[in-house]
Each structure stands twice: as C-alpha cells, then as structure tokens.
Amino acid sequence: MSNKDLLGRRNFIKGFGAAAGVAMAAPALAVSEKADGVKWDKEVEVLIIGSGFAGLAAAIEATRKGAKDVHIFEKMSYFGGNSAINGGLFAAPGTPMQKEEGVKDSVETMVADQLASGRGIADEALLRHVAEHAVEALQMTLDAGSEYHPYLQQLGGHSVARTYQTTVSCGAGITQPLLQECRKLGVHTHNRAKFEGFLVGDKGEVLGVKMRDNYHFGEDQPGKVSNIRAKRGVIMATGGFAQNVDLRMAQDPTLTAEVGCTNAPGATGEGMYEMFRLGAVPVHLAHIQSGPWASPDEGGFGYVSNYSIYNFPHSVAIDRLTGKRFMNEIADRKTRADAELNCRDAKGNALPPILITSYEDSKKHPNTKKVLKYNVGWKFDSIEQLAKHFEVPLAPLKQQIAEYNEYVKTQNDPQFGKNMTEAKGKYIQAPFTVVRLWPKVHYCQGGVQINTNAEVKDSFTGQAIPGLYAAGEVCGGIHGVSRLGSCSIPECMVMGMTAARSMMKA
Amino acid sequence: MSNKDLLGRRNFIKGFGAAAGVAMAAPALAVSEKADGVKWDKEVEVLIIGSGFAGLAAAIEATRKGAKDVHIFEKMSYFGGNSAINGGLFAAPGTPMQKEEGVKDSVETMVADQLASGRGIADEALLRHVAEHAVEALQMTLDAGSEYHPYLQQLGGHSVARTYQTTVSCGAGITQPLLQECRKLGVHTHNRAKFEGFLVGDKGEVLGVKMRDNYHFGEDQPGKVSNIRAKRGVIMATGGFAQNVDLRMAQDPTLTAEVGCTNAPGATGEGMYEMFRLGAVPVHLAHIQSGPWASPDEGGFGYVSNYSIYNFPHSVAIDRLTGKRFMNEIADRKTRADAELNCRDAKGNALPPILITSYEDSKKHPNTKKVLKYNVGWKFDSIEQLAKHFEVPLAPLKQQIAEYNEYVKTQNDPQFGKNMTEAKGKYIQAPFTVVRLWPKVHYCQGGVQINTNAEVKDSFTGQAIPGLYAAGEVCGGIHGVSRLGSCSIPECMVMGMTAARSMMKA
C-alpha cells in the first residue's frame, strides 16, 4: 500500500530522480521555527505526540509522577496508532508466568538474545534498560486491565519462553486499557491533531509545537494551526515509517509500494524527520525488518501472522521446490525472512514456502478457525493431498517429515539446530493445517538516537536537545540490524515511562 | 584516532548515555538560519564547500559552463581533503587503456559489478549516471595533467581490469592538477574557511552560507563569521564522517576510537548533518566500509594498502591458525573485510591473516620497496622461514600453496571461485613478500539522498531543496551496502561535474 497521496499538503512526489531538473513548484520549507515573539495559543504541562504504547505509557507515568496537565495528540481519527494492530506480544524476563512454568530467565539472557539478533550493532545499554524495567511495564498493562493468554510463547531468536500475548492476540488489548486508564487519570486526549513542527527557543531548546486541528489523514484540508507551549517539554512517540514508501525506498529500492506491509497507514515518519531537522542523529534507517510469519494470501498483519508465530515451534517450514526444510523455524526474524525470500522457482519467481502443522496442535490457537474460514490457510487429511495441492515433490516431503519427527522425539535438530523444547511430543501428523509464508515490511529499526533517559542526542553538541524526549519505534539503534519479536512493546512502554520520568525530574 | 577534541566550539561529548540526566550546559542550536534581514558580507556566483575530487571537478565544470565567480571553501589548512590521501584508483568502462589491453567492458558491466557489491540496495540510476560519464571525468584529470601507471588493475569485485592508478599511487595525483587547473581558470580557493550553516530564504531555498575565516582545525578560536550570498547556489562536497568517532559509533558501537581509520582527520561530517537539518533524507548511514587491504602494522592508509590492492590478484591470503586460504582474494571489500575479521586465535583474539606474494611479482609495484624498508612487510627466502616467522602450521601451508599454484595453471579456483585471469603465470614461489592484513574504517556509504542532477531531496516535499547540490562521499545510497574499490573517484568527479551543470542550467 502506498501513501503517496495520503500526506495532505506535504505530498510525496514519485520519481524524485525523474522529476528533477524541471522547475520545483513547492520549495522545501524548514518546518520548525524559532519561537521568538510567537503568540502561544495554549499552554500545557506535558505534551505527547502519538498515542501508541509509548505515548500512552508516558502519559500514565507522567501523571503518576505528579503532572497535572498532560496532553496526548494523535493525528489519526482513532487512538492507538500502529500499536493497536500489532500482535500484542510482550517479552519480559523474570515474570510470574515464567516462575509458574518453571522457565529460568534473566535480564542478561534476554539482552544476550537481542544482541545476537542485532548482529553486533545493537545498543546494549538501551536493551538492558528496557529488560530491567519490562516487568514493571507489563504490570502497568495488568493494572490497566489488559488480559493475557494463560501460557507463555517462545518466539524466534528467544532462548526461552518469555512472551505474553493478549487474549485478543492484538496490541489493542493493551492500547485500549491504557487509553481508558489515561482518561481516568485526567489525561487530555486529542485526535485528528497533526504535529506540524517544533517551536524552538534561542538556545535550541524545544519550547512547544505547532499543531493542526481537524486533520483528516490523506486529505488536503485547512485545519487551524495553534502554537502550543509545553512547559515541561515534548515527548515524541510518533512511531516508524514503514508506510512511507518513498522514504523506505530511499533505504531499500526493493521495498516498493507493491511489497506488503503490516503497519497502520499512519506510520509515515514525519515526527522522526522533524527531529532530524532539529539535529537529532539518524541511526540505522537502512535496517527495515520484514516479518517472516506473514502470508501472501491476505493484506497487512492479517490472521496468519499470529497463527504462525504461535505454531512455528511445532511446525515445519518447507521449500515447495525441494520438499525440504530450509530454515530453523524459530531463528530470528531476519534469518527467516532472508531464507523465505530465497524460496523461488526455477525461473527465480517467488515461490512462497509452506508451514505445515499438525491440526491437533494448531487448533489450540484461536486464529486457526479464522485462517481456515477465510481461505488463507488449508486443512488436509493426508500428506498426498497436501503435496498435490501445493505441487511439492511427495517423496522428499514425506522423508523430511519423518526425519523431523525423529528430531521431535530425540529433542535434537541436527538439520538446522532448532531448539526443540517447545516441540516436545508435537509430531507433524495428519490431519495438517498449512499456511503460505512471505515476508512483509513490519518494523523500522532505525530512527533518532536516544540515551537511557529517552533524551534525544544533538549531532553537533553530542548533548541532549533540551525539552525533547523520544520513545518507541521513532527511535533507532536499540535493536541493531534486526529486532526480536515481542521486544517492541516492552521497549515502547519502558522508554515512554522513562521519558516521562526524565521530564518530571528535569 | 579520535577527534573528540578536534571540533572546536562544537565539541563531541563522550558518553552521551553516561552524561545524560545532568544539566546540559551547551544547548543544541539549530545552526542554519532564516536569511530575513541578514546583512550579506559578500556575494559570489558559485559557492562550493570542500576541495576534494567533487569540489574541484564542480569548480572546473562550472567555469567551463560560463560561471565567472566560482569559490571553493576548505576548512583545513591544505586543499584536497580526504581525496588527497586516497589510493588514486579510478575505475571507468570503455577507456583507451582497456582498448589497448583488449579488455571488453561496458557501462552495463560496471553497473552490474557495483549492484552485486551493493547487495540489492544500491541506487542503479546513480551508478549508471556515473559509469556513463566516468571516461569524461577521467579525461578532465588527464587534461589537467594527472599521470597514470601504464597498466590497468582488476580490483576486488570488478569482473574485468578497468582501474587506472595515478603514478604517485595516491589521490593527490589528481587533486593537485585539478587545483592548479582551478587556479588557472580563476577559481577562488579559500582555506581555513569553516562552513557554519546555511542561510535560507522564505521558501526554504538556500540563499547562502555562514562562513568562519581563519579557522584552525581542532582549536577553539574565534575567527570571523561572514554571511556569503551564493547567487546560483551551494554545492556541498564535504566528504564522509569516518573520522567522527561518536557519529560512526552511533551506527556501529564497535567502531571505537581504537579502530584504525584510513581517512584524513577532517572527515567529520558536519556538512552532512547540516543538510539533515534542512530536511535532507539520511540514507544508509549504518553502512560504513572497512578496507580489507589495510595493515595493522602502520597508521592510516599507509604503504601496504596500495601494495596489497595491486598484489591481491596474484597472491594468497592465509589464515595463520590453519595455514589455509580463507577468502577469494579479489572478492568485494565487505566480503573480504568480514572474512579477515573472522581470523582469530583459539581465544578469539585478532590474528591478522597474511598475504603471500612471489617477490618477483610484487616488486613491480613501487610500494614494495617502502613496505620492506619500513618493516610493514617482510621478505622470506623459503616457505619454512615464512611459516616459522608467522607461526603458521607448515604442512597445510605448503599444501595450500601447491594447490593454489595448480589453480594458477588451470586458471580455475574451485576453492573460492577467484577469477584467475590476472594471476596467469604468476605462481606463488620463493622468495616471498608478505604483509599482514586487518580492516580499517575507510568509507561511509551513507549520506544525503541525491538524484542524477546532484539535487538534494527534501524529506517532506519529496522535491529538491532549491539552491542546494551535493556530490561525493557526503551523499548516500549510491553504492548500497558496500562500495567497490576505485569507484569513489569517478563518483565524486562525475557528481561534482553534474552539480555544476545542474546549477548552471537552473
């Protein structure tokens, strides 16, 4: 999905290269302005842009720390941002459920798993800070009324089961309760409110923002721009840019509008770019993650993603050309997405691999019914039927499944080194549930550089930009090359809480 | 080498994370300013920042296209920037020397080689534009008086021999003649002139710059800041940021001050960051290249780099732990640098691999004498002596060399698929010349996004920032993950020339 026409007065022009050389009609305006002599239309104490996990957690925490006048501004008509449609997966080390289930875990282990996925360039201090406060953030959601499945999941790249999931299998199971909690606490929430730039003091400090009201995403409409003074500062919780096709193509020309994307349409990155205009350091923008659990048979995150995330530990992923496994089904996201993209027919065309699960094991996940109902997953009574349907060579497939079932039995996968703990007793046997897999653009590892106080670094001074804080996907560097699944919610929430604490101490 | 203390009033503070939370003494200032009511101290026609390949080529081309008042501003005391100390290697397809030597090449072949090294995210349109104009740029250097070795080289990742090298084996063999040419043409060249930010019109167009004179790099000194109006616009040719340790560590925390760097000390990236403040799109900053031809036995680019670049095609690179080859000696830079970094002892400590060349073949390169003289390379009369000196297991080493010599004979390397064309008749035999290899930070693939008119894209409008052009290493995205050797000079010069042409047409 492209947002080329969805950005109102700031249209993205297709074909920068092609259009260049002709007269430029709409010049580039520096959007942030010096605040000298500006007329303030309104004054607030704490000003938060964005209403996803990070913004909501920041608002709650600021209020708990004594703020009396907290405002959240959301550009869309609905609250929750991209968070509301994510998978609702929350990793934390040392949780009550881990104790119940006898899972040994620690901050160190979780950080080590993430560093491995980050391929040497993750920010260890930030990862540790988040892991140390993850249980506290989980508690904030429980206090607000979030409900979780009564079991833990072990997601790809995690060395143990440490992931909670909301019973609605969706981030809305967290954003909705947090939003209600905000309103109970007296936080002011404004929708259709579009951030238009910072208002900056003589020393470069952020004094407030320009905010357009009555904003209708994707429409060119006037609205009224107000200058809002933020007494304690501004928290930018504006999310990633996966839905901004031009900007993601600047990093990777293969991520065209035709490539699937799991994100909400509002994930277009203006907040991040405005911070770069203030001097924030861009980190890792080139590292854009594709989700290896997505299906080419439905739009966005869909039903298959959560289905396959749950089922990967006790499933086999099969290359349809060879009938063989081609990856560790619970390797980290980048490893799996890269492996899937290599599944091609003899001519090099995409040949989405299939994930085969025993129906008896798959059906424990609530999405299984929906996957079958909406024809984005299929049930087969025999391996022959399955192989014929997907044109997979039968003999190698049968042999592969027999070999894999032996790994389930011995709890050892010599083929791809998969951790077989969660596969124990779960043999691949008829009837089968099958979905197709193909990566979709899911997450931007890159963004503005922050420290463990959620302060934003200035590229010249090397110090924090006063009055400015950032949290969540708008920040970069934390996860390095590739983020592990279920590590975004704890990051967003912990850094949102951290931003609020830093601001209330400043 | 660290530049933490070399940046004058804009000091980079070590440990942003650690320092945070305390009161911030020096706030972040937006450095560029609206030009409303500014008093212009001086007016020029064409204003170029930076005096490396890109800046010099831009100045010459602007003059040829009719500009009468062209100014180059250089912050260092000397002209030439990092270009002056690079390897002087210039790749171009379809050159006179290729015709003489019977090498078949084309724009398409050169672009294809670079796309492969770019690992799917290089900018094909820019690569093609540069390849199409590379011979023209080479001619500009010849017209100015540059002298080249009378042979072509086939560098790593190039499918044919297409690389010229200056007789001085150094970029100064190009920057010096171009600088003389500039002066002949009446270009005004200013050294110790520090760019301090843009002056921007009401519509976001670049009208001029703030420039500090009498600037002494690394010293905190006053100088005088002038406002200089640039009638036709500003060309930013300010280079990369490999010497800015804080900023490169933001992308890759392993690139500490202790990691070697081949760049001139002025490569600190302020110009790039100032363009981000105008709204330029940051592309691929995380992709920082290390040179696989560098030696841990000398500082910077040194003597070994050019020595080994020349000798790789007819040499074996040996892992000292195993006595075996560990890479294709002419693979692309990233492939080789990654392979070298994997050469470690049993405890995981760095064990720099060795490059073994027949002395008779190595001595054709002028640096061989210097390498031996300064003890950064060594001559051995026998394989036993060599193995003992570097503590390499003798038997596997002897066997490896025998096997490799067979590949030379058959012109086929089944071990690593090396193209053996340039190794023809060049057996590895005593006496030997040997150097040690270890990657050094060399090149920033990342920078601001430009188009084939050298215009700088604005992140919000998607259009060019009026009055602003950029060329050379300050730009990003062209090469993708990894640039091929000898492709920087053509890029810098072609895009410098292109910037001048675009400006003169605008």
TrEMBL record, chains A, B:
Q: What is its main location?
A: other
Q: Flavoprotein among the record's keywords? A: yes
Named cofactor requirement(s): FAD
Highest taxon of source: Bacteria
GO MF terms held by the record: FMN binding; oxidoreductase activity
Instruction: Give an example GO cellular component term for this record.
Output: cell envelope
Residue span(s) of domain FAD-dependent oxidoreductase 2 FAD-binding? 46-489
One Pfam family of this protein, by short name?
FAD_binding_2
Gene3D superfamilies, alphabetized: FAD/NAD(P)-binding domain (3.50.50.60), Succinate dehydrogenase/fumarate reductase flavoprotein, catalytic domain (3.90.700.10)
Q: Where in the cell is it found?
A: Cell envelope
Keywords, ordered alphabetically: FAD, Flavoprotein, Oxidoreductase
Q: Which family, according to UniProt? A: Belongs to the FAD-dependent oxidoreductase 2 family. FRD/SDH subfamily.
Name the record gives this protein: Flavocytochrome c
